[in-house]
Write a structure and sequence with these properties.
Number of domains: 2
Order of helices and strands: HHEEEEEEHEEEE
Distance between the termini: 58 Å
Shape: globular
Number of strands: 10
Length: about 230
């Protein structure tokens, strides 16, 4: 009798666990289906509107600005606002550590979006160019960052100060490989999945997206919508 009761209890427990597992799977499936999956260019442009931010501090390979060829690790957070009229404001904050406790520098990019053709990485991915023609703000957030910027300061540009933004749009800045009057563009991609925004993954050798032929081929860590 005792063995029979134990067997019944075991079967009941297994059925309950299986039921919970099935329920969890159904909840997850329903949650995924609850997100709009924009695919056409019009759908993607509409879905992008609003503010998107990094889920956590990200690690990115970055080309050494001195031209040494050494690839350096960069820790950062991204924040992008997609505005009506194909405009955007992007903010990238650099850190000196894995967890974002030591902010070093902030870049603010303002400009126009230029939409291209579909990108082959995924159904619903599109080529997109970020044209920095309305603002290029640089803010040192640490004394060492200000010293580094001032060490390569172009003639005629006043020194950088901690926590004070300076707009270098259209100005020569050799450290960033920018010449006088140059309008910087970033040749990227955009893709939405399960309510998250994916841009292009940075090249492992640190090559920037500064030319159409350098456009990325893979997806980067996603951004989440700021509600």
């Amino acid at each position: 009798m005792r063995k029979s009761l134990f067997l019944i209890a075991s079967i009941s427990s297994l059925l309950t666990l299986n039921s919970c597992s099935v329920t969890a799977q159904e909840v997850e499936k329903t949650a995924r289906q609850g997100f709009t999956q924009p695919k056409s260019l019009e759908e993607v442009k509409a879905y992008a509107l609003g503010e998107w931010t990094s889920i956590s501090v990200e690690l990115r390979p970055t080309e050494d600005r001195t031209g040494s060829g050494v690839v350096q690790p960069t820790y950062l957070r991204r924040n992008f606002k997609y505005l009506p009229g194909d405009k955007f404001i992007g903010t990238i904050t650099l850190y000196g550590d894995n967890y974002g406790k030591l902010p070093l520098m902030e870049f603010e990019f303002k400009g126009n979006l230029k939409w291209g053709e579909q990108h082959p990485i995924a159904d619903g991915a599109w080529k997109i160019d970020y044209v920095l023609n309305q603002g290029f703000g640089v803010t040192p957030l640490h004394e060492q960052a200000a010293q580094m910027l001032n060490a390569g300061l172009p003639e005629g540009l006043s020194p950088f100060e901690v926590s004070k933004k300076k707009d270098i749009l259209g100005k020569a800045f050799p450290m960033f490989k920018i010449v006088e009057g140059q309008i910087v563009s970033d040749y990227d991609l955009i893709y939405f999945k399960n309510g998250l925004l994916f841009m292009g993954a940075k090249h492992v050798d640190g090559t920037p997206f500064d030319k159409p032929e350098n456009r990325p081929h893979q997806l980067q860590i996603p951004l989440e919508k700021v509600l």
